[in-house]
From TrEMBL:
<dbReference type="InterPro" id="IPR017850">
    <property type="entry name" value="Alkaline_phosphatase_core_sf"/>
</dbReference>
<dbReference type="GO" id="GO:0004065">
    <property type="term" value="F:arylsulfatase activity"/>
</dbReference>
<dbReference type="GO" id="GO:0005737">
    <property type="term" value="C:cytoplasm"/>
</dbReference>
<feature type="domain" description="Sulfatase N-terminal">
    <location>
        <begin position="5"/>
        <end position="379"/>
    </location>
</feature>
<dbReference type="GO" id="GO:0046872">
    <property type="term" value="F:metal ion binding"/>
</dbReference>
<dbReference type="InterPro" id="IPR000917">
    <property type="entry name" value="Sulfatase_N"/>
</dbReference>
<keyword id="KW-0378">Hydrolase</keyword>
<dbReference type="Pfam" id="PF00884">
    <property type="entry name" value="Sulfatase"/>
</dbReference>
<keyword id="KW-0479">Metal-binding</keyword>
<protein>
    <submittedName>
        <fullName>Arylsulfatase</fullName>
        <ecNumber>3.1.6.1</ecNumber>
    </submittedName>
</protein>
Length: 484
């Protein structure tokens, strides 16, 4: 039997509600059409709210605490194995176009073809040498040295620094794009993806392609793109939260708020935060970026259809994590397990002709992507990989679970249908929310007398997850040892 092709489409920092099939304010007609032919997971979660650990978990099928990359500045150890490497060894031609964020890891990535672009704009260049680089490029590179293809593309077209491409229009991190769309990083990635499918995919073996867009991650620079005309600021959805809600949360929430406002010394009063005008501009820029990415995804899908390979291609679309985007008066992300950071868009278009899509309400995790691709490719899933293969959800044999586990260094969290708990290691405080009554997590019930039984039950469920994460945790204690 001919094995299916595998297409993994990723964005960076895209919230669960920043897509049209979940939020009519967002214009994503191509993803909406794809959703009609897909299993759409309404309650999909990332493992971690930051790029590097979240992606490390996706690539290895192991939680960040397991694979040795629990933080933003922790490279994946060389001893780990990516699912791309296993696909490669199993007979697939593997390729990547776009963002990966392995940071300083020396791990063997497992790609036959690589066009990795982790940059959002070019590092500043003076006299044809790199003056500054925040993207892992060595200092003093010249334009003739080996650099990411997008940087070379910009340099060759005369752009040597980000200020030539966009300008800041608000101190909330909002920018206006000034140049032709073709120089925008997500347009570039989309065009390169189409080019790979048209000219470089193999004809003699099944293929796997990661197409990974750096957007809509900050800088929020979608204003000035053609897609910003789709959005009138006064029509955009606004947060259901207030800045004062952070006063009920653990102390480190005040740290992220301090970038946008002030909290009194006694922690009982708050002022400032992103204004309504800033939030509307930010969301317009962010949604315009999402809409551009959607157009490029549409072009990729059209290329698949033209080549006759669409129906034999499994497509997974998701993001690594979300963004506050004005919730609680702040933006960006950090060491928090808030829903708007942890819940992500996620769909699977199966390699099945005329598949009728549906929305699935049970919990899934991005750590399960590895097992899903391996199973779809007919390759054995290693015992140390976490989670199920999600292929059962389109094959008619779904394996559902009633909660989801998540991490962020000192934080461990669990979400059920009714509640969400966040445990803080070596702290007396934590977070507990009634997700039916309070889906935006405004009222922390950690110390509420009536919720102590619920808290203890959730802590026990959380411990069960953490025990199972240990290496060989399911092995027998000894030969003939009794069951506990």
């Amino acid at each position: 039997m001919k094995r299916c092709n595998l297409l993994f489409i990723m964005t960076d920092e895209q919230r669960f509600d920043a897509v049209g099939y979940q939020n009519p304010c967002v214009k994503t007609p191509n993803l909406d059409a794809l959703a009609e032919e897909s299993v759409v997971f309404d309650y999909a979660y990332t493992t971690n709210p930051s790029c590097i650990p979240a992606r490390a978990a996706i690539f290895t099928g192991r939680y960040p605490s397991q694979c040795g990359a629990p933080c933003y500045i922790t490279p994946l150890p060389k001893k780990e194995t990516t699912f791309m490497k296993l696909l490669q060894e199993g007979g697939y031609y593997t390729a990547v176009v776009g963002k990966q964020h392995f940071w300083k890891s020396e791990i063997e990535k497992g790609y036959d073809y690589m066009d990795i672009v982790d940059n959002h704009f070019p590092p500043a260049v003076i006299d044809d040498k790199v003056r500054e680089s925040d993207f892992g490029l060595p200092a003093n590179l010249t334009v003739t040295d080996q650099v990411p293809s997008y940087i070379r593309f910009l340099w060759e077209n005369g752009f040597k620094k980000g200020e030539e491409l966009f300008e800041e229009i608000d101190d909330g991190g909002i920018y206006r794009w000034k140049e032709d769309e073709k120089y925008y990083v997500d347009a570039y990635i989309g065009d390169k993806g189409v080019e790979w499918l048209r000219n470089q995919k193999p004809a003699d073996k099944p293929w796997f392609l990661t197409l990974s867009f750096p957007g809509p991650h900050m800088p929020f620079d979608g204003i000035g793109l053609p897609d910003d005309k789709l959005y009138e600021e006064e029509d955009l959805d606004m947060p259901q939260t207030e800045p004062a809600d952070i006063l009920e949360k653990p102390p480190h929430f005040r740290d992220i708020f301090s970038k946008y406002g002030k909290v009194s010394e006694d922690g009982r009063a708050i002022e400032g935060g992103l204004s309504e005008e800033q939030i509307r501009k930010m969301r317009k820029a962010y949604y315009a970026n999402v809409s551009l990415i959607d157009r490029k995804i549409g072009e990729v899908i059209e290329e698949l259809k033209k080549s006759g390979e669409y129906e034999n291609t499994l497509i997974i679309y998701t993001s690594d994590h979300g963004d506050y985007m004005g919730d609680f008066g702040v933006a960006a992300k950090a060491q928090y397990l808030s829903e708007v950071l942890m819940r992500i868009p996620f769909l699977i278009k199966p390699p099945v002709r005329d598949f009728r899509g549906y929305h699935e309400k049970s919990f899934v995790s991005s750590v399960e992507i590895a097992a899903t691709f391996l199973t779809a490719g007919g390759i054995a899933v290693p015992d140390n990989m976490q989670g199920r293969s999600l292929t059962g959800f389109y094959e008619g044999v779904p394996e559902r679970q009633e909660d989801i586990y998540m991490e962020a260094r000192d934080l461990r969290g669990i979400r059920t249908k009714d509640f969400k708990l966040v445990f803080y290691a070596e702290r007396e405080y934590g977070e507990l929310y009634d997700m039916n009554q309070d889906p935006w997590e405004r009222h922390n019930l950690w110390d509420h007398p009536a919720q102590q039984k619920t808290k203890q039950e959730l802590l026990c469920r959380l411990m069960n997850h953490m025990v199972r994460l240990g290496e060989n945790s399911q092995a027998a204690w000894n030969m003939g040892a009794p069951e506990i």
